[in-house]
Amino acid sequence: MMMMGDTFGTIGSSLASLFFIWATVQQIFPNHFKIAIKEFLLSSFHQLGFAQRVSDYFTNIFSPYVDINFPESDEYRFNHAFSAIETYLESKATNKSKHLKGSQVKENKDLVLKRDEAKIRDEYKGANVWWEFVTASDQERSFKLTFHHRARSLITDSYVPYVVEEGKLIKAKKQQTRLVTNNPSSQWGVFSQNMWRSIEFEHPASFETLAMDPEKKEEIMSDLTAFTNGKDYYKKIGKAWKRGYLLYGPPGTGKSTMISAMANFLNYNIYDLELTAIKNNSELRKLLTATSSKSIVVIEDIDCSVDLTRNRNKKERNSLERNGEQDKDESSVTLSGLLNFIDGIWSACGQERIVVFTTNHLENLDPALIRRGRMDMHIELSYCTYEAFKILAKNYLDLNDHDDDPLFKKIKSLLKETKISPADVAENLMTRNHKIDVDGSLNSLIKALEEKKSSQSQHDEDKKKNKFRLFG
Ligand SMILES: Nc1ncnc2c1ncn2[C@@H]1O[C@H](COP(=O)(O)OP(=O)(O)OP(=O)(O)O)[C@@H](O)[C@H]1O
Ligand SMILES: [Mg+2]
């Protein structure tokens, strides 16, 4: 006869096994249980309200799981967490997924494969979570997050903010950069809409192909990287998260190309500010406050704007020195209007912004505009050096390490004595009919350099003669 203790032991171990299986199954299929119970009860009672209540009762007793719902919209307003979660989940290992979705939204873009599953398991610091894409009967879409109640604070305090932040980062990285230009104010709407118009920015410029001194290039790139990673630093030192770059140099030396390279490097939008389309400081202010973060605001050829140069008289400078006094002239964009914006409102609104001014004539700029602190870095784009030429030779002719080539040697010595822009060098190296003819291109560059050299020495000669006449 079996002993009483044995019977209890058997029942105990059977119960333990049952609970173990129950817990394991729930761990793997947290929602399947709820659904199974609901379906069972539904078929038994044909009454949703009652079935729901009973199923909730059972699952609350047995299920240690917690749900959070992230609807697409909250009180008719778009829920940004929803789209961040969507991006995050889409990025989760497509190569592991068994169900994929392929799409090509634009003819000139690659085919994109995405996960196509309603449920996705994720793991965070040892805790398992399950995401489920749910479409309610009223077509309301949402993401449901399920996790064990033990991990509650980890998930709510740490995992959810991580997913949202990560999703936003992935989105920003993937986002197509845009080139934005201001419309004349006559086209703006009543609520200041249509101030800017934008197109996709698809310039192929990169720092890799930019011809300039490699050390200087490295310095600029690390400055930009430090800037984008500097959120906490700027907060710590109590400064607005912005940085100003002044690019100066003769025509065709790569100023505009560098702006494109910066935008591609940082994945920022470019706001190309056309000052001539702006009537006054108030319009300028409206435009600039409407720019988004992670953007580069560009004013090209800043010295060529009539209204700005008009300010360069003593009176205006004095008024500037009196700490950016309000402009008396409300009918035009003025230098002090621009400076006030950069120093004042600019600092108070918006984050992570870069402002770039370009000029061919540094000497013509008002010192107030270019003082340190306003323009943090002055970058000179100069005539083509030998180092810059080597980068162009690599870009255009696929030539690497040709220092010993006699043609390279000749070009090196000519570049020392001749002022030629990288744009002119590039023009000579450009292949005809897409066929690379290395010697032909290098010889045509040598010819151009020799012609420039002789015209420059002729020019210097004439200048000397004029000077002699003046003093003679
Ligand atoms: N440093 C450079 N590296 C590579 N390509 C360059 C460089 N400078 C000029 N180029 C080539 O020359 C063309 C004109 O250059 P870019 O428009 O950048 O000159 P810029 O300095 O802005 O001139 P501008 O003062 O006239 O506006 C570019 O499209 C590019 O192909
Ligand atoms: Mg330019």
UniProtKB/TrEMBL annotation:
Pfam families assigned: AAA, AAA_assoc, AAA_lid_At3g28540
Keywords, alphabetical: ATP-binding, Hydrolase, Magnesium, Nucleotide-binding
Record domain AAA+ ATPase: where: 241-385
Biased composition, class Basic and acidic residues, residue ranges: 451-464
Keyword hit for ATP-binding: yes
Region of interest called Disordered, as start-end residue ranges on this chain: 451-472
Cofactor section: Mg(2+)
CDD domains assigned: RecA-like_BCS1
Single GO biological process annotation from the record: response to stress
SUPFAM superfamilies recorded: P-loop containing nucleoside triphosphate hydrolases
GO MF annotations in UniProt: ATP binding; hydrolase activity
Superkingdom of origin organism: Eukaryota
Catalytic activity, as annotated: ATP + H2O = ADP + phosphate + H(+)
Similarity-based family: Belongs to the AAA ATPase family. BCS1 subfamily.
Name the UniProt record assigns to this protein: AAA+ ATPase domain-containing protein
Natural source organism: Eruca vesicaria subsp. sativa (Garden rocket)
